[in-house]
Backbone:
């Protein structure tokens, strides 16, 4: 992968860590000033292309350098703010960049359909602010900076969700609930960071870890750990802190749902891993206990309970929203296993789930774009009227279940192997049960799509149609990726294992 480091001139590549955040942040007000939505979309597309290229460059540099430490303003940490890129966060940067690119392409027809013309420029500006926040959370090495960027992304996200009110007024309530719970999560997190600062006198995460290793842990750091886990658990939609997610995903604009489902909870999960392994230490007693009794238990319960809830939903987007809570449970179980194999499996599922949910929500958006699909009954016959979008939905749905020949099977297989290494047969049983429940709710949607007759309009059957190319292309890329990375899983497995090794070494 070292050749990727040469995609840009050396003078630009040297500042890639900060450019990754600065480029979309600067272009956000530019997008807001555009006279129409199409020009604002073009500005957004330029920003996400630049970020995707910069993320690829950083991946190439990490393969040779191992860790990149970028000192903002030339001030060395711990006094200055550090942007730190390593094997754990470079896959997340690449995920946010590439998914952001595909979702931005997808936004062209869907935003034009759902957002009023006078608001589209501001909509794209808010997206770029959210995009900036997610990237900043992922790349910063400063604990308080994590809080700042979390709030930057969250505030923009609340606005993006609320803009779905043009189609469904319930988006306003969903946004308000998301704001309240998101603020509570951020408050818990920043209180935890405050406790860490009180105990160590520094905000640089590597320096916090050094001080804690030298001085040991106290009640203050134990409290910090508890506050941080609750705050990040809420942001990551960890069961039972997930109550904001179903309505936010169901009533937001389709583009927003596809982007958030593929990136936001993944970034929060990454931050949780970063604090658990890089700031605290997995062998500290209260951290070790949390693996089994918090992450594994809540992850397993979430897998099953959220899957059961998904079965009884009548809105396809709420079905997939509850499914997302269950899939976060898979990641939490991987973390809770507490071994390198478990963490690697959790990271692998994180990347695979982004591909699944991205394709699924894009397909639902395409259905809504053409036929206003908002209920299970309105899925009837879409396999005949929109065969391309229905096929993409089917592939991603089967991947969500974990059917062989899809990436969903790959990551679940690695999770099962990691659980068996610990003799956690109960976890294997929970994984199988959750997959069977997923088969029920995904099968229900696929039966409506392929087995039911399409509705008629004025006595005439609906004609076969296709979503706009800007929706079909990114959706198809993600659907194909769900199959391709089953047959060529090595790149994703390598990234997941390298990330786990960086955090756990030989443990």
Residues:
């Amino acid at each position: 992968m070292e050749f990727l480091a040469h995609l840009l001139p050396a003078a630009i590549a040297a500042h890639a860590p900060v450019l990754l955040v600065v480029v979309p942040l600067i272009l956000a007000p530019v997008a807001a000033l555009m006279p129409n939505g199409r020009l604002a979309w073009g500005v957004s597309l330029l920003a996400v292309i630049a970020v995707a290229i910069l993320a690829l460059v950083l991946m190439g540099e990490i393969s040779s350098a191992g860790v990149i430490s970028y000192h903002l303003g030339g001030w060395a940490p711990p006094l200055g703010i550090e942007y730190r890129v390593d094997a754990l966060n470079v896959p997340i940067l690449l995920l946010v960049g590439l998914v952001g690119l595909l979702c931005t392409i997808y936004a062209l027809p869907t935003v034009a359909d759902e957002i009023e013309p006078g608001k589209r420029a501001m909509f794209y500006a808010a997206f770029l602010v959210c995009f900036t926040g997610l990237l900043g959370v992922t790349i910063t090495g400063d604990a308080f900076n994590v809080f700042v960027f979390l709030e930057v992304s969250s505030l923009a996200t609340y606005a993006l969700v609320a803009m779905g009110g043009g189609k469904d007024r319930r988006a306003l309530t969903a946004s308000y609930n998301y704001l309240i719970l998101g603020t509570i999560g951020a408050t818990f997190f920043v209180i935890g960071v405050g406790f860490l600062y009180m105990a160590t006198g520094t905000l640089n995460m590597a320096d916090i870890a050094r001080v804690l290793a030298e001085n040991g842990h106290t009640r203050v750091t134990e409290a910090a750990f508890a506050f941080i886990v609750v705050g990040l658990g809420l942001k990551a939609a960890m069961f039972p802190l997930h109550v904001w997610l179903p309505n936010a995903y169901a009533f937001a604009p389709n583009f927003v749902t596809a982007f958030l489902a593929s990136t936001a909870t993944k970034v929060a999960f990454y931050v949780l891993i970063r604090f658990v392994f890089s700031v605290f230490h997995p062998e500290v007693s209260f951290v070790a206990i949390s693996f089994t009794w918090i992450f594994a238990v809540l992850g397993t319960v979430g897998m099953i309970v959220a899957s059961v809830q998904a079965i009884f939903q009548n809105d396809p987007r709420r079905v997939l929203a509850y499914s997302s809570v269950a899939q976060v449970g898979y990641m939490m179980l991987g973390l809770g296993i507490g071994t390198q194999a478990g963490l690697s499996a959790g990271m692998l599922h994180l990347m695979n789930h982004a591909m699944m949910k991205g394709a699924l929500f894009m397909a639902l958006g395409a259905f809504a774009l053409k036929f206003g699909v908002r209920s299970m009954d309105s899925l009837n016959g879409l396999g005949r009227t929109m065969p391309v979008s229905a096929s993409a939905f089917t592939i991603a749905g089967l991947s969500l279940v974990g059917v062989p020949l899809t990436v969903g099977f790959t990551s679940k297989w690695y999770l099962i192997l990691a659980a068996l290494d610990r003799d956690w047969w109960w976890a294997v049983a929970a994984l199988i049960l959750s997959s069977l429940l997923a088969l029920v709710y995904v099968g229900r949607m696929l039966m409506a799509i392929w087995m039911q007759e399409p509705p008629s309009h004025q006595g005439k059957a609906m004609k076969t149609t296709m979503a706009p190319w800007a929706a079909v292309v990114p959706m198809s890329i993600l659907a194909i990726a769900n199959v391709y990375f089953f047959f060529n899983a090595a790149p994703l497995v390598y990234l997941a294992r390298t990330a786990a090794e960086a955090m756990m070494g030989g443990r």
In short: The chain has a mean pLDDT of 88. Residues 300 and 329 are 6 Å apart (CA to CA). The two ends are 26 Å apart (CA to CA).
